[in-house]
Each structure stands twice: as C-alpha cells, then as structure tokens.
C-alpha cells in the first residue's frame, strides 16, 4: 500500500492545481495562485486585479454555489455572477479589443463580483426598494446592475442607455440570456469625454435625464445608476429639474476625473456639491484614490424621501 501513496498524492495535487482558481476554496487561495502566475503578473491589469480582490466589502453578500464559475449554457460559455445572473463570457472589458481575460479572473476570484465597494452599496440600496420600482442605467454596457435590479425587485422596470452600439448589443444579449426584459436605448446623457473603442460613438445621439424621463413618461425614478466616463457632472446638470423636484430617489454614481485621466479636475467633489445643492443626502462616497477598482463612487438619496442613512465602505489610499 505504501508504495502507491506518493503517486496518489501527486496525482491529487496535479488535479487540484488544474482546477479553476475559484475551486481552491477561498479568495486568499485565489490571490496566492493568481500572484504566482507569471503570465498574470506580467499583464497590464495585475495591480488592479490584486487590489480589487483584496477588498472585503462584497464578501458578506449572499452567493449561489457556482458564483464566479464559467459554465456551459445552451452550448455557449457563460460566467455566473454572485446572484446567479449569467453573462456572456468576455462581455465586459475583455475580448478582442483587450486581448486579456482580467475581468473574467476578477469575477472568478470575487465569486461573482467585480467592484466590491460599489456592489456593497448597490446591494444595500436595492434591498430597500418596493415592487414595481424603476431604474435607469446610463453607460449600461453589459447591463450587470440593471440585471441585478431586475432579478431582485419584483415587477422591476429597467431603462438602459449606452452610447456604443457594440456594448449596447452585449447588454441586450445578457438580458436575453437571463430571460429579462428591458428598454434599451442608443445614446448618451453627458459629455463626449471617452471617445473611441469601448467609449462613445461619434454619432451617438445626445439627450438629458430630464428629457429622457419626459419622453418615456417616467414620473419617478427609484434608482439612477451612471458610469459614464467623465460625463457625470454634465449629466447631473441635465437632471436639474428631476433633482430639484426629488423625482429621483437614489443616485448611484461612478466618478472619474483628471487624476485618472478621464474628465476634469475635482470632478468627484463637484458632483458632491451639486447633489448637496439639490438637497440630496450622501449615503456613502469614496474618491478614485480611495477606490479598490479605480472609479470613485457617490450614493445619494433625496432627503425628502425616507431611506438609507449610511453605508460603511472600506477606503484605500491608492495612486492609480
């Protein structure tokens, strides 16, 4: 018996090391495995992936058993997010345009998350919403937050705006993958800051939040989510009437700025000031420097409407 022991152990170790990283039981194992991989370490997003993986903010959010894993669905590879939502593989920040699978790795290592701070905030916001709530996502791309909203809120109404036709199609495909319905719109509500691949098409039509809500006959918006690559302040200007009348309950805003090469200087603070001027309570916020995943974040609530007072977020001091 003893002479068979070493080959058996060796075979097990080879099998164990060949498993997907998420199968190695813990995030710490994933980080250790990832950091020891020379190819990953040489990649352009290695530092960002490690910093994001190290953030604990999304750890407490409930997860399905196969969260983060790549599976086959109707003959196609898909990745499972924390709540069971499926996304087409490489449908966000990957594929031929990037020639890397860094986001797939990140989602795998975080068991179905990709930006822990913002996802903690969104999780807490969505928990408070009533059936039939409405969400508008600007810069929707893969439509992840809209799908999360749709899955969580009974009778959810989803409106999505994306200024890149390729990305718009990816978001629509992810909705279809999960048998969800949404109102998809080509265009942008902000400034044309992020041009080129992955950004705003030069021919994308421009509108404003106020005009969009009127066109769609939306009298009240429960969540406005925006990740629009430096156009956030001008987007808020275009929402002036809706903000003034508190027709938007929660705003979940990814912020950028000159410090990360996207947008104007002090953009985060300017957005905070504008929301304060419109009598919005800041539920949580962090700057780009305090972020584990580059983008800053502001979550604000109309003071006239009851809701969340505060969400604790881990904050860092990173020079991106």
From TrEMBL:
Signal peptide start-end: 1-23
Keyword Glycoprotein recorded: no
InterPro entries on file: FkbM_mtfrase, SAM-dependent_MTases_sf
Assigned keywords, A-Z: Signal
Domain of life: Bacteria
Domain Methyltransferase FkbM per the UniProt entry, residue ranges: 158-281
This protein's name: Methyltransferase FkbM domain-containing protein
């Amino acid at each position: 018996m003893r002479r068979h022991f070493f080959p058996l152990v060796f075979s097990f170790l080879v099998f164990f090391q060949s498993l997907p990283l998420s199968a190695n039981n813990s995030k710490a194992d994933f980080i250790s495995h990832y950091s020891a991989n020379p190819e990953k370490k040489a990649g352009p997003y290695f530092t960002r992936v490690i910093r994001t993986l190290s953030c604990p903010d999304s750890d407490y959010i409930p997860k399905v058993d196969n969260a983060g894993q790549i599976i086959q669905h109707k003959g196609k590879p898909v990745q499972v997010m924390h709540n069971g939502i499926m996304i087409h593989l490489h449908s966000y920040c990957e594929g031929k345009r990037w020639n890397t699978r860094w986001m797939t790795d990140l989602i795998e290592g975080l068991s179905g998350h990709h930006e822990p701070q913002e996802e903690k905030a969104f999780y807490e916001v969505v928990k408070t919403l009533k059936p039939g709530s409405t969400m508008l996502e600007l810069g929707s791309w893969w439509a992840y937050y809209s799908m999360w909203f749709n899955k969580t809120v009974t009778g959810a109404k989803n409106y999505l705006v994306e200024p890149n036709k390729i990305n718009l199609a990816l978001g629509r495909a992810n909705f279809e993958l999960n048998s969800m319905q949404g109102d998809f719109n080509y265009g942008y509500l902000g400034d044309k800051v992020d041009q080129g691949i992955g950004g705003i098409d030069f021919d994308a039509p421009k509108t404003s939040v106020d005009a969009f809500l009127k066109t769609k006959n939306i009298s009240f918006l429960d969540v406005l989510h925006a990740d629009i690559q430096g156009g956030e302040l001008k987007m808020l200007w275009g929402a002036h009437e809706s903000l003034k009348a508190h027709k938007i309950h929660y705003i979940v805003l990814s912020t950028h700025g000159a410090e990360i090469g996207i947008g104007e200087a002090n953009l985060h603070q300017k957005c905070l000031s504008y929301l304060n001027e419109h009598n919005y309570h800041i539920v949580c916020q962090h700057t780009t420097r305090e972020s584990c995943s580059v983008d800053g974040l502001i979550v604000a609530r109309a003071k006239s409407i009851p809701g969340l007072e505060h969400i604790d977020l881990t904050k860092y001091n990173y020079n991106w």
